[in-house]
Write a structure and sequence with these properties.
single chain; mainly alpha; Na+/H+ antiporter like fold
């Protein structure tokens, strides 16, 4: 992994600060401004040196984003909507992945394995992009919870699918029992690790009222749960999500001292700001150097298939909930379809594909094309779309 020099880091942070100021003044999505800035910086030699790798995103940037988002989620709201988000996050990802894989194989002639890899890595919505986009929008609380919670949960399904495909590419046989065990290990294991790490650190935090120590312990909870889970082949996202939920709902009741709460929240808000800033600038820097194939017809086909897969996942699954108290407003469903943004996770998984996969180069270029469409077209139009649907928080009844 290339090292990030102090000069480059300073340039990235200064750029992020300027973009934040300009974006708020122009009322544009901050994430879009960062990608544009990253593209501009990408043409300056030596400015954006870090590779956008799976390891970089998973070990450095993703834990603070997930943890900070989880801190702000109220457990009772999360629990009451969990059947909906779990339905969209797990069966939904499977439906979208199958639709995209079938389309890429039948329409573009990709091998089933290459098409399946692309379908899996692009099916899950990206928590980095979703959280960045929706944090800036004042939308109705339940809609915000559904969109953000789904993006936090569906990593588990994508991780299982990606892991199984890597095993198949290496010559292993995927039996139904092996797939079921892999799913349980990834999802349940991640949740268990997050709960265990957070519980242990909350016990320690309860012995002090030093806010600096308590911030340090929450940092260990965020990164420790993530890295331990990933090390054992579990979902780091679900581990950190669980740890954040525990700290934000149980920790505030006594383990985290009242004096420390505002300090902890401020620290994690800043950590998420830093992570978001650097991730989106790096995405822009890498978008700047993609081959012209990113504009090819195959990219347009892939974008259409990704949107179709999202439609096939959201509307039929939400229809199953219509007779229940968990019914999802049709306008919410429209936002879930259009707001299913893709970003750094898809790119990280694409860059982690087996080197001997025939379509590897095409998958990477196509993934960058889908992410560019997601950020610039979907991201830029989301505020307008929310307003058009009458779903801004101030319009909530």
């Amino acid at each position: 992994m290339a090292e990030l020099s102090i000069t480059t880091l300073g340039m990235l942070l200064f750029t992020a600060s300027l973009v934040a100021m300009i974006s708020r003044r122009l009322r544009l999505p901050y994430s879009v401004g960062l990608v544009v800035a990253g593209i501009a910086l990408g043409f300056l030699p030596g400015v954006v040196e870090l590779p956008l790798s799976r390891d970089l995103i998973f070990t450095v940037f993703l834990p603070p984003l997930i943890f900070q988002a989880a801190l702000e989620i109220e457990w009772r709201h999360f629990r009451s909507n969990l059947p909906v988000t779990a339905l969209l996050a797990f069966p939904g990802v499977a439906i979208a992945a199958v639709a995209v894989a079938a389309g890429m194989h039948l329409l573009l002639g990709w091998s089933w394995l290459g098409a399946a890899f692309f379908g899996v890595l692009i099916a899950a919505t990206d928590p980095v992009s979703v959280l960045a986009a929706f944090k800036e929008m004042k939308i109705q609380p339940r809609l915000s919870l559904l969109v953000e919670s789904e993006s936090l949960l569906n990593d588990g399904a994508a991780a299982v699918g990606f892991g199984i495909l890597v095993s198949i590419a290496a010559g292993a046989e995927a039996t139904p029992l092996a797939i079921a065990w892999s799913f349980v290990w990834t999802v349940a294991g991640g949740i268990a690790v997050g709960a265990a790490v957070a519980a242990a650190l909350l016990l320690i935090a309860g012995k002090t009222e030093d806010h600096l120590v308590e911030i340090t312990l929450t940092t260990i909870a965020a990164y420790g749960s993530f890295l331990i889970a990933e090390n054992f082949g579990m979902s780091g996202v679900l581990a950190t999500l669980t740890a954040g939920l525990l700290v934000g709902n149980v920790g505030w009741k006594g383990a985290i001292s009242p004096n420390a709460r505002s300090h902890v929240l401020a620290f994690w808000e800043y950590a998420a700001f830093l992570a978001n800033s650097i991730v989106f600038i790096l995405i822009g820097g890498h978008e700047a150097h993609q081959p012209l194939g990113i504009f090819a017809g195959s990219s347009a086909v892939a974008i259409a298939l990704v949107l179709l897969g999202r439609v096939l996942a959201i509307y039929p699954l939400c229809a199953l909930l219509n007779p229940t108290a968990l019914k999802v407003d049709l306008r919410f469903q429209h936002v879930l379809v259009w707001g299913g943004l893709r970003g750094s996770l898809a790119l990280a998984l694409a860059l982690a594909l087996p080197q001997d996969l025939p379509e590897r180069g095409a998958i990477i270029v196509t993934a960058f094309a889908v992410v560019a469409f997601s950020i610039f077209v979907q991201g830029l139009t989301m505020p307008w779309f929310i307003k058009k649907m009458g779903l801004a928080a101030k319009e909530a009844g």
